[in-house]
Automatic annotation (TrEMBL):
Record-given protein name: DNA helicase RecQ
Family matches, as Pfam families: DEAD, Helicase_C, HRDC, RecQ_Zn_bind, RQC
Cofactor(s) demanded: Zn(2+); Mg(2+)
Domain annotation Helicase ATP-binding: ranges: 22-190
UniProt-recorded Gene Ontology molecular function terms: 3'-5' DNA helicase activity; ATP binding; DNA binding; four-way junction helicase activity; hydrolase activity; metal ion binding
The keyword Isomerase belongs to this UniProt entry's keyword annotation: yes
Superkingdom in the source lineage: Bacteria
Helicase C-terminal domain segment(s): 210-360
Family, per entry: Belongs to the helicase family. RecQ subfamily.
SUPFAM superfamilies linked: HRDC-like, P-loop containing nucleoside triphosphate hydrolases, Winged helix' DNA-binding domain
Reaction(s) catalysed by this chain's protein: Couples ATP hydrolysis with the unwinding of duplex DNA by translocating in the 3'-5' direction
Presence of the UniProt keyword tRNA-binding in the record: no
GO cellular component assignments: bacterial nucleoid; chromosome; cytoplasm
Length: 513
């Protein structure tokens, strides 16, 4: 085993967990290995594939990456090939011939090929050493990337009873993990979970008030560096990319509305460092093997913690420092909720809501971001201070904002809970705009009481009141604000409203060399 590691792969030692996985497979035991991106999953099956008799079949949804993987394996002298829809019949026949004559150590397959019954017959005539299921979370509807084709893998262990099955994934909440085990019916598998901590990533959540200006300033602090900006809608992707281009930044859009050729071209320009920034919907990134991504910015709310972890996880795969910034505003929540409300399937809708509320908690509480992420994956973070997130790097100050909260609350009460955040802020800051005058709100006792602070301050305080469930926003067309029970306790000073303010950052993480 060590001999093969050195001679075939040129490595002198295993990375954490690799040895256990390799040994289990060599013992013909099933495996479920959950390792973060960059953890070295390929070696875990390529090494036994070289050592064992027969062909190792690797089922992977990432057609675009198969060629690279095969080229990489061949460069190490491994007899590898792939079969997928990108090939013409002659190319496929050639691979099948090599497979049938026992001249392949590794065969990469797309799951849709595995469904075909004639293909299964062919596999029946071949000596297989093992079956590998890459991106195994695709079999779970609880995961972030469910692929119905993967369900066909559930009879793998009965069809090929004599060979071990090894499933790999970089995502797995305990629920997805259990689902993978159940759906694949793995037999007394070795389960390996590597730590999900990515120590070189700095997590930073910022109050989103002016996206364009904030993006530009973030890009300015990472000049010429490669990065991804995630946005929710295709339109905002295009708009943001255009805006950045106008500012002289080599940014390209990526979303499902572009033609295949355009998407592919933009992706490749990014991979080859011809474009520094890619602005993308979540359609971008799975299987992107670009190691020098220095920053990932979420300009809108991610769909779930799992998505957030995956998307930020694309940064810093080379182990060098990288920055992950989430721009967060309570005002974004209704947009996402509106979208979720349109989901017809009830379980699906509730799942989406639950996922959203976890993201909101992640972004709006002042707990170490790293700890919150790892908690989500059932891993406890052993340190008090990670020294690499906005919470741990900032010194915090608890401020009593009861008086200011009372100003907002009484403006809401005096206008009979019939107005939205913008108007309430206009009242306390003493605006004389048309709406204020028309409603006679300049005659309210609370008009202008909060002039000491600017609008941004009041906006943030409203967000804080929403997050602390002092007030709530009405659903539907008019997002008017109304009071929750806690509000009357604050108004009567029976309860205090504290806000945690993150003071000046100690120091930004130094840019990578
Ligand atoms: P994953 O599929 O888990 O994202 P890869 O299999 O692509 O990760 O491996 C990530 C990188 O780590 C690759 O460049 C690979 O060559 C390297 N690598 C894997 N195992 C070792 C090892 N034991 N020693 C040194 N480098 C390794
Ligand atoms: Zn932290």
């Amino acid at each position: 085993m060590f001999d093969t590691l050195r001679k075939v792969f040129g490595f002198h030692e295993f990375r954490p967990n690799q040895e256990r996985v390799v040994r289990a497979i060599l013992d013909k035991r099933d495996v479920l290995a959950i390792m973060p991106t960059g953890g070295g999953k390929s070696l875990c099956y390529q090494l036994p594939a070289v050592m064992m008799e027969g062909t190792c079949m690797v089922i992977s949804p990432l057609i675009a990456l198969m060629k690279d993987q095969v080229d990489g394996a061949r460069a190490n002298g491994i007899r590898a090939a792939f079969l997928n829809s990108s090939q013409n019949p002659d190319e496929r026949d050639e691979v099948l011939q090599r497979l049938l004559s026992g001249k392949l150590d590794l065969l990469y397959l797309a799951p849709e090929r595995f469904i075909l019954s004639h293909f299964r017959e062919i596999l029946g005539q071949v000596q297989l050493s093992m079956a590998v299921i890459d991106e195994a979370h695709c079999i779970s509807e609880w995961g972030h990337d469910f692929r119905p084709d993967y369900l066909s893998l559930s009879d793998l262990v009965t069809l090929f009873a004599g060979i071990p099955v090894a499933a790999f994934t970089a995502t797995a909440t305990t629920r997805v993990q259990q689902d993978i085990l159940d759906k694949l019916a793995l037999r007394n598998p070795l389960i390996v979970r590597a730590s999900f901590d990515r120590p070189n990533l700095l997590y930073d959540v910022r109050f989103k008030d002016n996206v364009e200006a904030q993006l530009l300033s973030l890009l300015k602090s990472n000049p010429g560096k490669a990065g991804i900006i995630y946005r929710t809608s295709r339109k905002s992707v295009s708009d943001t990319a255009t805006m950045l281009q106008k500012k002289g930044i080599r940014a390209l859009p990526y979303h499902a509305g572009l033609s295949d050729a355009e998407r592919k071209g933009n992706q490749e320009a990014f991979i080859r460092d011809e474009a520094e920034v890619i602005v993308a919907t979540i359609a971008f990134g799975m299987g992107i093997d670009k190691s020098n991504i220095r920053f990932v910015i979420h300009a809108d709310l991610p769909k779930s913690i799992e998505n957030y972890y995956q998307e930020t996880g694309r940064a810093g795969r080379d182990g060098e420092p990288a920055q992950c910034t989430l721009l967060f505003a309570q005002g974004d929540i209704p947009k996402v909720r509106f979208f979720i409300d349109s989901i017809i399937d009830e379980t699906e809708r509730e799942r989406a809501l639950g996922a959203l509320s976890k993201v909101i908690t992640f972004a709006s509480t002042s707990v170490c971001r790293r700890r919150t992420l790892l908690d989500y994956f059932g891993e406890s973070y052993p340190h008090d201070n990670c020294n690499s997130c906005d919470i741990c790097l900032g010194s915090r100050e608890v401020v009593d904002a009861t008086l200011e909260a009372q100003m907002l609350l009484s403006a809401i009460v005096r206008t009979e809970e019939r107005f939205g955040a913008g108007h309430i802020v206009d009242i306390v800051t003493g605006s004389q705009n048309k709406k204020i005058i028309d409603f006679g709100h300049d005659r309210l006792k609370t008009w202008g009481v909060g002039k000491a602070h600017d609008k941004k301050y009041w906006r943030q305080l409203i967000d804080e009141l929403l997050a602390q469930q002092v007030i709530q926003k009405a659903e539907g067309l008019y997002p008017t604000l109304f009071l929750l029970p806690k509000a009357s306790r604050i108004l009567k000073r029976e309860e205090q409203l504290n806000i945690v303010r993150i003071l000046e950052k100690k120091k930004e993480q130094p840019p990578a060399k």
